[in-house]
Amino acid sequence: MLQGVNVALGVSGSIAAVKVVELAHELRRHGASVRAVMTPAATNIIHPWAVDFATDEPVVTEITGDVEHVELCGHDGWADVLLLAPATANTAGKIAGAVDDTPVTTCATTAIGAGTPVVMAPAMHEPMYDHPGVLDALDTLSAWGVRFADPRVAEGKAKIAAESEIITELARATTPDSLSGRHVVVTAGATKERIDPIRIITNRASGKTGRAVARALYVRGADVTLIHDGSDVAYADVIGVETADEMMRACREAASTADALLSAAAISDFTADAVQEKIRSGSPLALDLEPTPKLIDSVREAHPDLPIVGFKAETSGDDAAMIAEADRIRERVGLAFVVANDASVMGDDETRVLLVGSDADEPAVATGTKDVVAGRIADRLAEVLKKDHHTE
């Protein structure tokens, strides 16, 4: 997600600085190169040698005649983005006031003046985060184009955002915004059909692909609505659903303001008439299953012109068979393209898919982590929407 991105990492004096070693390692695992800059207060919490080890680069602890702030964050500087993590109330206030009395604040002023993207991950005690002056400073920085990985407020503290959220904001700050201004609806995961108050019918879909696609769309500038049976995420507005019927209703409503729908969820093909009391164990049981309506058919009926991307999992393991089935669905519903894959990768972190478009296009193969493949899917959607815009 950060392949080839140069990250200048500004560390200030929050206790959250102890997380910087792992954060630097995670940035590098995602393909970034990292060079760190530390305030004097930060060096009292974590030794620069540890940060040097984590980044494999010398750490800037003072600005010298080598004008490190300009070399890193100035016009044509080394950094593609400046990440302030953790960012204290003190540091945020100084940057908003153009006060440059530490290497970190000096790099921030330089980056903002040079137009280098800045991402900030605040960390402080909750009363400090609620201070009107701090909130004003954060609003000022936001108005200047600084992006935020918002803290998690818990136990009286505004705790630094999770590494995955910081990486997502870095990716959004450094990736072309090919989907800016677009609203995209994504479905993910499995649905659950109730048999009784305890038992359900479901499937093995993990939702990893759908969530990765939603994240990739956000990184490219889209406003994303994620419909799934899962927790909230920072990169999308989440609509929680459980059954196929709930997902279908949510999709039809969300699609009314959408520019596209990506239907990645593995929706139950059958439902049952649920009973109100627990079915007692030990007795023979027969279920009458009824087929559920097809979500993409329902959304297509409600929104005839909406670009829809379908997902199709097959168990044959044969590319030709997967392409034929994808083409059949694409033509029947009028889909923009279909993402076809073998069901054997369900739940894995690595995947292989075929992007099946019009008859004139050769199916494209995308392989790798689900984040990588999701990026290919998001880029393909951006091409579709750009083409549709030009033909309007």
Helices and strands in order, then pairings?
Blueprint: E1 6-11, H1 20-29, E2 33-38, H2 40-43, H3 48-55, H4 68-73, E3 81-87, H5 89-96, H6 103-114, E4 118-122, E5 124-125, H7 126-129, H8 132-143, E6 147-148, E7 152-154, E8 157-159, H9 163-174, E9 183-187, E10 193-194, E11 200-201, H10 208-219, E12 223-228, E13 237-240, H11 244-254, E14 260-263, E15 270-272, E16 289-291, H12 295-302, E17 308-314, H13 319-333, E18 337-342, E19 350-356, E20 364-369, H14 370-391
Helix pairs in contact: 1-3, 5-6, 5-8, 10-14, 11-12
Using only CA atoms, what is the Rg? 24 Å
- Low-pLDDT residue intervals, each spanning 5 or more residues: none
Determine the number of helices (DSSP H or I, runs of at least 4 residues): 14
Strand order of the largest sheet: 13-12-9-14-17-18-19-20
Short key terms for the protein model shown above:
eight-stranded mixed sheet, alpha/beta, five-stranded parallel sheet, elongated, 392 residues
Care to give the gist of this entry?
With 392 residues, the protein is of the alpha/beta class. It has 14 helices and 20 strands.
Q: What this model shows, in words?
A:
The protein is 37% helix and 23% strand. The protein is α/β, with parallel strands linked by helices. The strands form five sheets. It has an eight-stranded mixed β-sheet, sandwiched between helices. Strand 1 (6-11), helix 1 and strand 2 form a beta-alpha-beta unit. The longest helix is centred in the C-terminal third of the chain and has 22 residues, at 370-391. The mean pLDDT is 94.
